Amino acid sequence: MPKLRGEAFWRETLRSAHYVVAPMVDQSELAWRLLSRRHGAQLCYTPMLHAQVFLRDANYRRENLYGEACPEDRPLIVQFCANDPEVFVQAALLAQDYCDAIDLNLGCPQMIAKRGHYGAFLQEEWDLLQRMILLANEKLSVPITCKIRVFPDIDKTVKYAQMLEKAGCQLLTVHGRTKEQKGPLAGVASWEHIQAVRKAVNIPVFANGNIQCLSDVEECIRKTGVHGVMSAEGNLHNPALFEGRNPLVWEMAEEYLEIVRKYPCPLSYVRAHLFKLWHHTLQVYHQLREELAKVKTLEGIVDVNRELKLRCQEEIANQKEGEKPKEGLPFFHWICQPYIRPGPKERCRENGDSGTEKGVRGKRALEEEEDGNSELLSKNKQKKKLRNPNKSFDPSLKPKYAKCDQCGNPKGNKCVFNMCRGCCKKRAFKETADCPGHGLLFKTKYEKSLSWQHSQRGIQTPEISQRGDAEVGETAVLKEAGDS
Fold it and tell me: Which residue, 394, 398, 396, 397, is CA-closest to 371?
């Protein structure tokens, strides 16, 4: 059966999905996807997966996609970050039987994407992107989709989208911010860019950006004409966003924790979700915030969640008639609601800065200019500086690591094959060789094994000889008895 394309793919395979949960690193795992689907989400993406790691690491595949089958978790799109056509397609081939489409991440704006050369930092390399999508469209049995960020110029954004469509992209998600708009500098997403793309291409388009509640979804569809709307942060703070409800936080938290019991995930994911769900309440109960950060078991997280629920119920019981939410919130803090990310000036006031140009700098911007000045360092780096005053964060002073000949990861300094440990282990095993630099001694162990086997034969030989002599003697006795 030929794979569906464009509108037919969206209508039949994706079941005309309008409400979409975004791909979120370590946050759109199976348990969270199932919670979101129960409360209105019609399509979900996996977290962003690294194509090269997915290709070489069976454990990574099992943990992120090959786990327990769950028929409820469809339709599902698997998202990869990649910068090599062959690696991308080979990883996608391993994933295509577990999903309904493969998405290429061209929207991640974070520093890790810049260092790894993927995400939004590929948006100027149109020849490379064409090769990647053309090859994927040719080789895969499921459609290829893309998630992009916009350029400041609308015309360039439109040409970018048309190029991706021509290469074989069957659905396009447009985040209406540029790659520079992130963190406290995010600002408002441009629905004007999204509308222009929707009018210029003949494939389905999803919009992403400025989605905090169901009315935002409806307004976005009305203004841009898109087929569906994707939510990330809005969904994390209120997984019932697409139902148009604002439930009690503990209801969502308890339901999520029950799903996690059935479909386990790393504790860090669970903790991060509760930090989002309980965000406004944890501004009130600081001690419980510390406990949630330190707890080391799922049962411990359940206990913190229970204590937060009890505190809120007690607060509700003592509430005075006509009392209104504090801190300018639309609802009381124990109700799921949007979190409005503060801009640079608001962030400075929160941190006790004066609002000068130095104070306005965003946290992520600091990563690009880490010159060791503690005034310009993030809070985490300032803590490290306190523990180790001689520590420097100047990128020019960081050691330059040579790359593995096989995969491009940092190689071991003393590796005899000039490889990282993973690649070295495979080669050393295949060739029965030693690599003292990585502590791999396949040849030595093999030789010891042969030596041991030889020594065992030497021990057994006299016994065999003695047994043989005894048998010869016994035969002679029997022969003499027969002769007599």
Answer: 394
| Domain end position, chosen among 274, 292, 318 | 318
How many CB atoms lie under 10 A from the CB of residue 443?
14
Under a CB-based contact definition with an 8 Å cutoff, are residues 412 and 437 in contact? yes
Domain match, 88 and 169 both: yes
Residue 218 neighbours by CB distance under 10 Å: 13
On whether both 191 and 310 belong to a single domain, the answer is no
Number of neighbouring beta carbons within 10 Å of residue 212: 18
Alpha helices (H) along 18-57: 30-38, 51-56
User: Which residues are paired to 391 by β-bridges?
Assistant: none
Instruction: Output the domain CATH number for residue 158.
Output: 3.20.20.70
Query: Among residues 108, 146, 404, 423, which one is catalytic?
Result: 108
Are residues 38 and 131 both part of a single domain?
yes
Length, in residues, of the chain: 484
Instruction: Specify the amino acid at residue 111.
Output: M
CA distance readout (Å), 454 to 392, 400, 441, 465: 56, 48, 20, 17
Residue 2: count of CB within 10 angstroms of its CB: 5
Q: How far is CA 346 from the centre of its chain?
A: 29
User: Considering its fold, how many domains does the chain have in total?
Assistant: 3
Spatial contact of 147 and 109, defined as CB atoms under 8 Å apart: no
Residue 313 and residue 229 share a domain: no
What residues are paired with 172 via a beta bridge? 146, 205
What pLDDT, on the 0 to 100 scale, is given for residue 365? 42
CB 378 within 8 A of CB 363: yes
- Identify the pLDDT of residue 343: 61
Domain membership of residue 464 (yes or no) is no
Would residue 47 count as lying in a domain?
yes
132, two tokens: 């990647």
Tell me whether residue 108 is one of the annotated catalytic residues.
Answer: yes
Q: Is the dihedral of CA 458, 463, 468, 472 positive or negative?
A: positive
Question: Domain range holding 166?
Answer: 6-245
Phi, psi of 371 (to 5 degrees): -100, 15
Same domain, 160 and 308: no
Query: What was the pLDDT predicted at 68?
Result: 74
pLDDT averages per 10-residue partition of the chain, 484 residues: 90 97 95 97 97 94 88 96 97 96 96 93 97 97 97 97 98 96 86 97 97 95 97 96 96 97 95 96 93 94 96 93 87 92 57 44 42 58 78 73 82 88 90 92 90 79 48 44 43
